[in-house]
Amino acid sequence: MTAAALPRAFPFGSAATLAAALRSGRIGAVELLRAYLDRVDRFNPALNALVVDDRAAALKRARAADRARAKGELWGPLHGLPMTVKESFDLGGQPTTWGHPARKDHAAEQDALAVQRLKAAGAVVFGKTNVPLNLADFQSYNAVYGTSRNPWDLARAPGGSSGGSAAAVAAGLSALEFGSDIGGSIRNPAAYCGVYGHKPTWCIVPKRGHSLVPAPGAEMDLSVVGPLARSAADLALALKVTAGPDALNARGLVYALPPPPKSLKGLRVAVWLDEPIAPVDDTVKARVEAAARALAKAGAKLDFRARPAFDPAQAHAVYGRLLQAVMAARRPDYERLAEERARLAADDDGPHAQMLRAATASFRDVFVAQQQREQLRWAWHDFFGRHDLLLMPITATPAFEHDHSEPMPARRLRVNGAELPYFDQLFWAGLATAAFLPATIAPGGLSPEGLPVGVQIVGPEMADRSTIWLAGELAGLIGGFQPPPGY
Question: Is residue 71 flagged as an active site residue?
């Protein structure tokens, strides 16, 4: 198919528009897949976003999609749509490494449940995108697949841990993506690459098949899986086809997510621009504030002073304890961490020592943190009784230059001219993560350097449709996704 015959939505339009063209027969699944694969062949060598290429199986499925449509059979709303998923999801017959060289020859026996649901909706999954080791960095590089780069500036990171995901969507290499998030791993890359991303309410999209432990695996605390896309409508579509209980409780459990607001007029929007324990660069604050002011101009009621009734530092400490325990427990080298902790001096209270103690916490320690987390959840519940949604940053800066120095905690980010700890920006991810809240990233425009800035929209538990809706409304006020130059 010639470029002139491709839908106008290709390659940077919405997945929903492309899916409609596929369903109507205006383009075939094979033709659209090959068009995206041509872009992968052209741009991926420099970006290194796609690291598992399953095009042979995808072409077979695309041909089946075209035959089905010719007979009047449609598989679902994503019929024939070419898309990718994060490397951490099982894709039958392909490796799932999480960046570990020892797992490079691992082959998944079946698709992760989220992938199964995407395919049941008609998607054609043609590959997987890059991650950092253990899914534990704001960058995406590992010894198995190398380094992924930001399409806005190849010298900069695309974020992590869904960095390959965001880079692929931003560069127009895939129509839709699915990633995961425990410390901003969907939201951080979405902001750095200028795309949309959604961290769902915890557990509404099951994570079976997204783990290094043998399937089925228990639901992991804090962690969620969710979509990255070039429009808010695509986030809503991807969430709709993947949300729902797993088979264990599907007999009696149904998620009835409440509908979004009908208008911006009178919408009660709180705005949290900065916090002393996690400073935000002025270039980021300016874009978040501009988004808030645009909402006010459209009739929303802003409150820049509203805060939930808890100490931000204490809330961040609770999140940190839970995060370190969860992240460490899923690591294949957990025993090494335990050995390191055993060698700590009793009076060592440095950052690394604190991390080791949290990572190897006792069940009692984790239990106490979980009880403290319940207090945070109720504080948020009260807060969202008085405010509909909350705007805040997700990253301290726009995308930064690659930094693979070790040890990782010693890295620094330059915020308003000052060198600050690399992991301070986890604060902005942890507020929603610790309390199981949904959070959506919307493109907020460009920094003075010409780099994307993301706006984080947080809502009460189960208000996923509302945070995604507001991201779509912002697109009409300040602009939405824009392709990086040169793609």
Answer: no
Among this protein's residues, is 161 annotated catalytic?
Answer: yes
Which residue, among 402, 83, 9, has the nearest Cα to 241 in the 3D structure? Answer: 83
Active-site residue, selected from the candidate residues 86, 119, 199, 207: 86
Residue 104 annotated in active site: no
Taking alpha carbons only, the member of 337, 347, 437 closest to residue 392 is 437
What's the rounded Cα separation, in Å, for the pair 243 and 48?
Answer: 30
Q: Which of 14, 148, 161, 165 is catalytic?
A: 161
Q: Are 22 and 7 in contact (CB under 8 A)?
A: no
Spatial neighbors of 363 by CB under 8 A, at least 6 apart, are none
**Catalytic residue (choose from 185, 223, 447, 466):** 185
Cβ neighbours of residue 286 under 8 Å, at least 6 residues apart? none
Condensed to tens digits (0 to 9), the pLDDT of residues 395-435 reads 999 999 999 999 898 999 999 999 999 999 999 999 999 99
pTM of the model: 0.97
Q: What residues form DSSP beta bridges with 150?
A: 153
Interval 81-88 mean pLDDT: 98
Tell me the HSE value of 100 on the side-chain side, using a 13 A CA sphere.
Answer: 17
Mean pLDDT on 198-225: 92
CB distance 20 to 69 below 8 Å: no
